[in-house]
Amino acid sequence: ATERIMLPLLKVMIPDIIDYHLPKFGTFHNCVFVQINSQYKENARKVMHAIWGAGQLAWTKVIVVVNETVAIHDEHAVFQALSGIDIFNDIEVVRGALDILDHAAPEIGAGGKIGFDATSAVPKEDAIKIVSVQKTEGGMGADSLKNAPQKHTSVSMLFAVDDDIDAENLGDVFFNFCACFDPSRDMHYFESCIGF
User: Fold this and answer.
1) Which pick of 49, 104, 109, 126 has the fewest CB atoms within 10 Å?
2) 134-158, pLDDT tens digit by residue?
3) Burial group, residue 44, by CB count within 10 angstroms (0-12, 13-18, 19+)
4) How many angstroms separate the CA atoms of 100 and 170, rounded?
5) What is the pLDDT of residue 72?
6) Distance (Å, rounded) from C-alpha 179 to C-alpha 49?
């Protein structure tokens, strides 16, 4: 209900926005999907930064911006669009204020934020791989990501999650990702893919 009530006000502040969606796995301020009619290069980045400066949305950690052809309230459609981004040009990482309850932040109430520009993305099959990791100590997620690109050569994005997360349930995977990830600390670039 909140997103429907706030949409008209958000459109006044950021006229580029057609619609937005606060997915259930983005509980609190961890994630927002935004739909725009992209009019020019880097339009999505302008919208990301406007959101990071807009009232309570300023605490948002993960933003995915899609074009008007993507069904913004269909999380699978948004993930499909995300699968086609250029990992070297369509990701914006910044530092800023975060929800005080974000336990993944490197400092209380401050840390990394990430935005994905999927406005011109063409979805790719098998571009996203979920890697289950049986963690017994810190750093094991990062270690598993280092070995994964050799096993999954067609993948452009790898997401490491605890082995008790059902890798087939995207809601659970991305809840874990949004809650336990800090972009300023937990991103790993490889030759042809990126790991989170």
Assistant:
1) 126
2) 888 878 888 888 877 777 778 899 9
3) buried
4) 25
5) 94
6) 21
| pLDDT the model gives residue 9 | 87
- Tell the residue number behind the tokens 């975060």, with chain if given: 98
DSSP secondary structure code for residue 107 in this structure = B
Phi-psi region of 109 (alpha: psi -120 to 50; beta: other; left: phi over 0): left
Q: Are 105 and 97 in contact (CB under 8 A)?
A: no
CB 73 within 8 A of CB 124: no
**Residue whose token pair is 């990126």:** 194
Find tokens 């009619």 and name the residue: 37
Q: Which pair of tokens denotes residue 155?
A: 């993948």
- Residue 147: CB atoms within 10 A of its CB come to 9
Q: Which residues of the chain have pLDDT under 50?
A: none
Question: What pLDDT score was predicted for residue 1?
Answer: 65
